[in-house]
Amino acid sequence: MIGPVRPSAGALRPLGLDAVRITGGFWGERQERNAKASIPHAHHWLEETGWLGNFRLAATDDLVPHRRRGREFSDSEVFKLAEAMAWECARGGDVSVGELSTVVAAAQEPGGYLNTMFGRPGQQPRYSDLTWGHELYCYGHLIQAGVARLRGGVKDALATTAIRAADHVCVEFGPTGRQALCGHPGIEMALVELFRATGTARYLDQARLFVDRRGQASLPDVELGRAYFQDDVPVRERVVFAGHAVRALYLACGAVDVAVETGDDKLLAAVVRQWERTVAARTYVTGGMGSRHEGEAFGEDFELPADRAYVETCAAVASVMLCWRLLLATGEARFADLAERTLFNVVAASTSLDGRAFFYTNPLRQRVAGEVLDRSRPWPRASSGERAPWRDVSCCPTNVARTLASLGGYVATVDDGGVQVHQYAAGTVASGDIALTVATGYPWDGGVEVRVDRTSQRPWRLSLRVPAWAGEATLVTPEGTQRVTPGYAVVSRTWRSGDTVRLELPLTPRWTAPDPRIDAVRGCVAVERGPLVYCAESVDHDPATALDAVNVDRSAPLTERPLPALGRDVVALAVPASATSDPRSEATRTDEADDRDPSEPAGGVPARTTPAAGDGWPYGSISTAEAEPGNLTLVPYHLWANRGPATMRVWLPVASSTQDRR
Amino acid sequence: MIGPVRPSAGALRPLGLDAVRITGGFWGERQERNAKASIPHAHHWLEETGWLGNFRLAATDDLVPHRRRGREFSDSEVFKLAEAMAWECARGGDVSVGELSTVVAAAQEPGGYLNTMFGRPGQQPRYSDLTWGHELYCYGHLIQAGVARLRGGVKDALATTAIRAADHVCVEFGPTGRQALCGHPGIEMALVELFRATGTARYLDQARLFVDRRGQASLPDVELGRAYFQDDVPVRERVVFAGHAVRALYLACGAVDVAVETGDDKLLAAVVRQWERTVAARTYVTGGMGSRHEGEAFGEDFELPADRAYVETCAAVASVMLCWRLLLATGEARFADLAERTLFNVVAASTSLDGRAFFYTNPLRQRVAGEVLDRSRPWPRASSGERAPWRDVSCCPTNVARTLASLGGYVATVDDGGVQVHQYAAGTVASGDIALTVATGYPWDGGVEVRVDRTSQRPWRLSLRVPAWAGEATLVTPEGTQRVTPGYAVVSRTWRSGDTVRLELPLTPRWTAPDPRIDAVRGCVAVERGPLVYCAESVDHDPATALDAVNVDRSAPLTERPLPALGRDVVALAVPASATSDPRSEATRTDEADDRDPSEPAGGVPARTTPAAGDGWPYGSISTAEAEPGNLTLVPYHLWANRGPATMRVWLPVASSTQDRR
Questions:
Q1: Strand ranges, E, within A402-472
Q2: Which of A45, A442, B109, B275 is least buried, going by the fewest C-beta atoms within 10 A?
């Protein structure tokens, strides 16, 4: 199995990149873009920023503090790119890991230590700042890159370096070593994966130690609290994910890996319980996780603001990683459902259509149009209304790159009874005697045809996931047509080559209402079509402020129409809507310059004295506001911000419940 | 005039603590509590934390870095307490500024430099970190304390130290000095006030320099952007307050002071314009300002979430200071209206009933009951669900203390035509030949009686503010009864001793609806009575989760009832309401421990697997949820969290617009 996550136990066994090939369509195009644009782009920026150069300096002992560049976690970006390249190689791509492998290996110190930030003359000592230093976190990504090489059958310098680092960690932080842990989880799952790839049990033991050590308040009570790094509550006692979202989800991945490999059902049940409550109360309709800018963190239950949604791209990657682990462990469709939602609405949204610019945060409401970003320099902030080519903290591009390169590894599984297809992408699936071709225009088209190209003589089961959003679907088998409901549609029979099964998923656009406890979107509805969440973008409307006070009638028809500017097959939607009149004109405002009066030269007399709300105080008695009829265009959320700076909203106020005032 | 802000020009002239005495009632009680409890409490904590001790160490040259305690701005807390004590002295209180004055003066270096954080052996050099070092900000508070002494007629060591520091700043940062500015505004208004108190023009010149220098991008482009310290846009070109709320409002105060003293009408108009849009689109119904935890900042227009409202207490203090300056400059009632709203609903809310615990943030929704705080140690975080005795960043207690001690200075003014009363508090007002007594039970009672105790023979005008919330009111004068509308009710006549005027403000509780562009509270209403905003608190309801899914009918009657637990005169309200059934039970949850399963010992089997939303996904199709009828108790917002940990909400969902789902 060439792919991420190869458990030795669990309900389902993954099929890797050697067994699943995505050959086109939505994800095939994105895999090609990733290989041709995003991976070279990331490589360019790692050179440009010096984050790769840090390793070269380290190898020649020239790495004095003032020459090192980048933040304390920049080493991990090199490792994540190496992992992306490794998966890209494994799926047959034209990319070489050799250079990165050599550069990284040369920087490793005797004994296995490897970090360009610590330990040299003039730098802080090794492991002197476990709270913020990210040393073990960086090892985690190094090891995951090494595992990708090993799974691809290549024991190169990268793999060897990763193994030496893991051995070093087991000595340094083992039962008789430092009783400490890293402020950023991630190494736990990496060590379990290395155990799986090498059979060396102490990596698993060390991972279990790290999981069990967390939640004992050994990290300091920082301003954000110990919940920030999940050190407030032991993993087994936690009831919901909290704190920094990426940290929380990476830790959960490691906990599942440990649970599966050690047969620790209680630990697995604890993570499932946390996942359930998080999905029920702390997850956006896009699948995004992490409500708060402060601490890049989960909020309280039902604290899910649209405009200030943080929804870090890396948290979405981590959520997909966790869903896949839970799916393999339990075989339950709900985990594949959330993975699909997250892939289509956050992971796909994170990258521009040219593959060279990225969102770090993925809000569901953009109040002020983004600034046009200079593509020649890194953007200093995490958030931006337009995708940025690179950032001072640029964790997301390489994380998406490794996910897309290995995406074939998240599509299908086998068990003793047959083959399960969880995600729909045009391509082929092979396992043992069985070979399948999947033909589909998903998610634009709801039909998924699976053809049996090769089969054993024995009967086996083909299971196709019916997403929860479908309500019900139609399944056409050689035996006839049937209605199927969410979960897995299972066809158990003796197959012959050429047999086909066709799943028809209903893509009628639908209105979606939020739980009334989500205060931030009360009185609003969202629109979904298949797995895609839609949004309204100001570039389709005039004036640009129309979205601020738009109202929709949730009984209105949602009409499909093409939008070639965003792609050949893209389905946009149109719906009647009305807008409350708004005296403001913010067409020229951007998120960086909105506080300067655009109508005035410096020092001039202000032309406007009350450019905002009508009577100067936005709270008043109850009366009826005027609304002008119009039309609203809705585009798939993952495609927004590809046509210049825009405001945007996923949640649309419902006319009947809009609050009126004098 | 003994009080803050004595402009040499403008529509109105302030009356100080020598002219206005608050003798009882709402604010009188709070002034007493401030004098008896809060000021000694702050003094205790300044000793306990070593922030006062830093000055003693500095005076003896023992201040090596590892002995200094507190953050880079801790000096300012000592200065703010000194200012509070100075005003308390000035209004006749039994408090001595002598000790603080001596300790502070002894730490000043030759040449006037004074900061315990910089410049000594082993410390960073003076002015080496203007971005974050807060040196000029600290001077600002030192100078304001010195001005308070000078206005009180005392030129003591504190006043002399302040003058020497100001002289030092004028040399160091003057036209031929460093062309630089502090990351935190505040010194601008202080220098203008010192100019007013001493007549030394170069303090005013220096203040104008600092105002004009800001917005030239001389501070670095930090992660939060230059808007954080208002260095993105020049003050004259800005259209709305942005960035760190306290910084923005302090800067605006300084700009108004400079504008008034230099006759710069364009600068004044620019600040008025910024204030107007901020009030129209970036202000909470409580008057609170600053929506974001990230950067303690204003958000975009209409970005006003209830639960994550930052609403720093110090920003409310700063807003009152700004309103007062704008009122004096223009004579317009709207500035006094916002000051009143902010005083009653943020400043009053910040302090516990015993005067010894404080909110730093003042959200309009508490989702999870606060933790019971240990009163014996500072709280490490800005936010808490319960008021904290002190914090690692403890700017608010001393800021409220100086505001309450000088509150008499924000009540009334004179102009050539007579006397204006802007805020209603039981007490006396005297100016020249005129003396008045104000009798009122405001804000519990809407009647305000002004008796003329002494008067000149010439006719003069008595102006009483009619708040905008009143719609209209009744005025009873010796000539008869009339209806008056918001603004100033003016009685122009020849007065005789014993004449009375009675203003009757309508205190009928009222429903208030938000502008539809405030997404976060769509479909909700708030309740107000007079100047007070109300809220529902979980301690009055069972189960504790009742507030999560409560619905009110905005046509329902709001019934008044006493609530002696919160005070003798307190008026609570009751209203019929219904609650959507909620499967959760969070009665035992607190904001620090909510992620641990309370029903389970460590390592036990989880009893609950889906404790949150019904079907595990909080978004769905549209149907009707069940609601159970009940009653909702509403208490004045400023009194919440005085009866133990509680959840709370100001904005109440309206039944008819609540989103239902399957």
A1: 412-415, 418-421, 427-431, 434-440, 447-454, 460-466
A2: B109
Q: Are A456 and A434 in contact, with CB atoms under 8 Å apart?
A: yes
Site of tokens 């023979």: B457
**DSSP calls for A41-56:** HHHHHHHHTSTTHHHH
Task: Single out the residue of A307, A573, A615, A300 nearest to residue B594, CA to CA.
Answer: A300
How far is residue B335 from each of residues B279, B321, B329, B468, measured CA to CA in Å?
10, 10, 10, 11
* Tokens coding B512: 């208030």
Q: What is the pLDDT of residues B333-348, one digit of tens each?
A: 999 999 999 999 999 9
How many Cβ atoms are within 10 Å of A604's Cβ, its own excluded?
A: 12
CA angle A412, A413, A414 (to 5 degrees): 140
Chain B stretch 571-600, residues whose beta carbon is closer than 8 A to a beta carbon of chain A:
580, 582, 584, 591-592, 594-597, 600
Yes or no, beta carbons of B270 and A606 under 8 Å apart: yes
Q: If DSSP codes are grouped into helix, strand and coil, which group holds residue B586? A: coil
- Per the CB < 8 A criterion, the answer to whether B181 and B214 are in contact is yes
- B-facing residues of A in 535-574 (CB < 8 A) are 548-549, 554
Query: What span, in angstroms and rounded, lies between the C-alpha atoms of B47 and B65?
Result: 18
Cis check for the bond before A443: say yes or no (omega within 30 of 0).
yes
Distances (CA, A) of B169 to A162, B146, B209, B230, B326: 57, 15, 12, 21, 27
Dihedral in degrees, nearest 10, Cα atoms B420, B425, B428, B429: -20
Q: What is the DSSP letter of A323?
A: H
- Which of B236, B305, B513 is opposite residue A621, by nearest beta carbon? B513
B610 touches chain A (CB under 8 A): yes
Tokens encoding A353: 């259509």
| Three-state DSSP class for residue A194 | helix
The angle, 0 to 180 degrees and rounded to 10, between the axes of the packed helices B74-90 and B395-405 is 20
Residue whose tokens read 């920023």 = A49
Within 8 A of A515 by CB-CB distance, chain B residues are: 613, 618-619, 659, 661
Rounded Cα distance, B327 and A609, in Å: 17
> pLDDT digits over A553-603, tens only?
888 899 999 999 999 999 999 999 987 654 333 333 444 445 655 443 333
CB contact under 8 A, A618 and B515: yes
Contact residues, B window 237-296, toward A, CB-based 8 Å cutoff: 237-240, 242, 266, 269-270, 272-273, 276-277, 279-281, 283, 285, 292-294
Asked if this assembly's ipTM is beyond 0.95, the reply is: no
User: What contacts A568, CB < 8 A, 6 or more positions away?
Assistant: none
Fill in the DSSP letter of residue B107.
Answer: T
CA torsion, ordered B297, B303, B309, B314, to nearest 10 deg: 40
- A234, A516, A653 member nearest B658 (Cβ): A516
Q: What is the pLDDT of residues A477-515, one digit of tens each?
A: 999 999 999 999 999 999 999 999 999 999 999 999 999
Q: Which helix (H) or strand (E) holds A534?
A: strand A532-537
Sorted by sequence, the CB contacts under 8 Å of residue A570 that are 6+ apart come out as A444, A562, A563, A564, A635, A636, A639
For B164, list phi and psi in degrees, rounded to 5: -65, -40
Enter the pTM of the model. 0.93
Query: How far from B150 is each of A427, B160, B161, B201, CA to CA, in Å?
Result: 83, 9, 12, 17
DSSP state at residue B14: E
